[in-house]
Amino acid sequence: MNDTPKTPVQQLWQQQPVEGTRMSVDEIRRRASRFEKRLFWRNAREYISGGIAIVLFSYFLAHAHDMLSRIAFAMLMGGMTYVLAYLYLKGGTTGAATAKAGKQCVDFFVEELERQRDLTQNLWWYLGPLAPGMVMLTVSALLAPRTPHSRWVMVATDLAIVAISYAIIRVNSRAARCLQKQIDELRSAEIQQASN
User: Longest Cα pair distance anywhere in the chain, in angstroms?
Assistant: First the structure.
């Protein structure tokens, strides 16, 4: 699409000064509160999913028939524990955005958005700790006695893991872009000082 003005009226319209977005402190507090609720529920989903994964890995660890599989499931349990601990330490909210006033509220909310953006952009903490266990599980499947379908099951499982990892990266990249958009919007907004 071409944005070059074709008529003098279009040119005049495009050259007029743009007013910044006006946002009250109350509106920022509402946004911060909604954001904190979304983070709370995201983290709750991750903790529940991670807990279920750890329980499943421990079940498979207890019922594995070879040492390499046991090592793989132990590594996966350790990796998932690291992921959940990292999310707890870096991905939680402080809840202070709604308590601050004026410019402090905006600055704090922007810092929270930036922190979450950085967390969703850099997924080494999320996928990296699970990779050694997955590699070890693949190696143990390759070295295990073969059944007619074992190789195809392993290939299908590995492809599914790659597809899920790719989807996680795409979803988090989109989330990071949305967070950056909110950050840019807040930084460009003119804050109306509410008379309290």
Answer: 79
